[in-house]
Amino acid sequence: METSGKHRTIVFLDMDGVLVDFSIGLANALNKDIGGNIDYPRSRGKKLNKVKAYTGPDKVFPITKEFLVNLLKKRDAKQELTGWETVIKRYQYSPITDNYDHWARLPKADGADYLIRGCFDLVGEENVYVLSAPVDEASIDAKKYWLAKNTPFPPERIIIREDKDAVPPLFPDSRCILIDDREKYKALFSSSGGEGIIHTPEASMEGAKNSLLTLSRMI
Description:
five-stranded parallel sheet; disordered N terminus; alpha/beta; 9 helices; single chain; Rossmann fold; 46% helix
């Protein structure tokens, strides 16, 4: 557990895609809006109307978890999106913005408990934290509620902030390892002295086993 001359190893677990099945929750929210008849006001309504009016051959509906996972990967890699992917990208956060209930009720990822327990066993329970990026204030409060309800993490080991690269410097005498499903955050975390493990497949037992295997080889 003591490595590289550091006093301790600290593992940071992302929420969305690691502890929480974010993509299935988002897919359900999008399908409810696209397939429903609610007239939303202002910009949300305009964006939703563009989604409903789209008739390109690449249109896929209902939206699937796999579609959203692939869309996020393409966005992070700055790859060109199809027409349907573009209209979904522009709308996808509308149903979950300022929506406490959505974040509070997201399903736990398959393998989440297995991953948490495995990390506790490898580095010690006191050395495992949650590190999650918020969408807005409602998501921050809901994420804290979700963690209190679904995990053993106390408030002092929960960090919710967009700038994940700011975290390793807060623990200068420790080796910091982030388990995250997004290359974007792994790169940010590594840029400030941390290390990263890509959790894949996201929100799955297979992903949990892969991440724990990689972690065991690193420490």
